[in-house]
Amino acid sequence: MIESDIARLESEGFALLQTRVLVDGAMSHRLRKPARLSMLQARAHLRQELGKPADFNHYYRPNKDAANPPACKGSACPAREMLDWPQATSGCGTPPLIGMVDTGLNPDHAVFADAAIELHRIGPKANASGLIHGTAVASLLVGDPTSRTPGLVPGARLIAVDAFHKAKSDERMDAFSLIEALDLLAQKGVRIINLSFAGPENAALAEQLRALDHQGIVLVAAAGNSGPAAKPAYPAAYDFVVAVTAVDRRSQIYRRANRGEHIDLAAPGVEVWTATSVSGARTQTGTSFAAPFVTAAAALLLQKNPQMTPSEVRRALENGATDLGRQGPDAVFGHGLIAPPNPCS
User: Fold this and answer.
1) Could you give the 3-state DSSP secondary structure of residue 277?
2) Could you give the number of structural domains in the chain?
3) Residue 194: predicted pLDDT
4) Is residue 22 a contact partner of residue 33, using CB atoms and an 8 Å limit?
């Protein structure tokens, strides 16, 4: 929007709360509607007046299962073993820069002693998010390979953006903060972004994610944990985002995973061994913890061939997957269980 647009909206009772200039020069604005308009009326008015993808400031939440008994003990049961994950890849090309948007994480955890992590916080320090979810996801990506929670691509650099906050017991991120976090990662030059959270469809978010895809950034998202009858969750359900569901060590689907024709790939996500927020490790369950396996597999592809486009990466991952369920792609497992490429072969 230009200044005249803002002035006109303010004259109509809208209030400008925040503005961000995105990396491509576009402007992101957060507005408060006038009391005389409902939320639906305000959105329709903005879309009609401005011709832009205005939408609600939706909330997005981490995809973890709170009821998760730690049945697995120590490094005797890492989920990576079921995938035959390549062990030595450090001498074969340079890993791409990986980004993640998540809750906070503990960079001082022993599992990150040798990891290259750059952490950013979006929003006020008050009511900051917890460290559990972000630490777990980051440990799956770049954790110490000799620890109980070995990272899948420990040699990669990770830029993590904490855009979540707590509202009483609810840990959530609004769409405006998410767009700002994604823009920061684009400015940093990441090639892959891990999105282990879910929420509703949002027009402004979709426009930005589509632009990131066109810029050559691979987008990987958790499918969601709302159950097989739930509506598609976003951003996973966008067709330019790799939607990842979760399976257990027998390749059986996680009972609470979302389903749908948008599901692309399956990865371990039930009782996955991860780092905890302060020290030590425990198991975690949810599609949040399946997404990093696909993010890491995409990283290995780009390590071997940095010129690959996001669509080429998606196609290679799908073509290499091990078919599960009924023959061919389906609404439960997508194209099947991720098969990690080896950049050294």
Assistant:
1) coil
2) 2
3) 98
4) no
Closest Cα to residue 70, out of 131, 171, 148? 148
The more confidently predicted of residues 298 and 43 is 298
Integer-rounded Cα Rg, in Å, for the chain is: 20
CB 101 within 8 A of CB 195: yes
In angstroms, rounded to a whole number, what is the distance separating the alpha carbons of residues 271 and 133? 14
Domain that holds residue 40: 3-50
Q: Check whether the bond before 235 is cis (ω within 30° of 0).
A: yes
Give the domain CATH number at 288: 3.40.50.200
pLDDT digits (tens, 9 = 90+) for 139-166: 999 998 888 788 999 999 999 999 998 8
Q: What count of other Cβ atoms lies within 10 Å of the Cβ of residue 183?
A: 22
Per-residue pLDDT reduced to its tens digit, 287-310: 999 999 999 999 999 999 999 999
The pLDDT mean for the chain works out to: 87
Nearest by Cα to 267 from 85, 71, 133: 85
- Asked whether 248 and 72 are in contact (CB, 8 A), the reply is no
Residue 22 lies in a domain: yes
How far from each other are the two terminal CA atoms of the chain, in whole angstroms? 50
Q: Which residues are catalytic?
A: 102, 133, 288
Query: Mean of the pLDDT values across residues 112-133?
Result: 87
| Token code pair at residue 24 | 């491509």
Reduced to 3 states, what is the DSSP secondary structure of residue 320?
helix
Average pLDDT over residues 62-73: 50
Q: Do 34 and 65 belong to one domain? A: no
Q: Taking residues 32-51, what's their average pLDDT?
A: 77
Whether 297 and 177 share a structural domain: yes
- The structure tokens listed for 57 are 């400031």
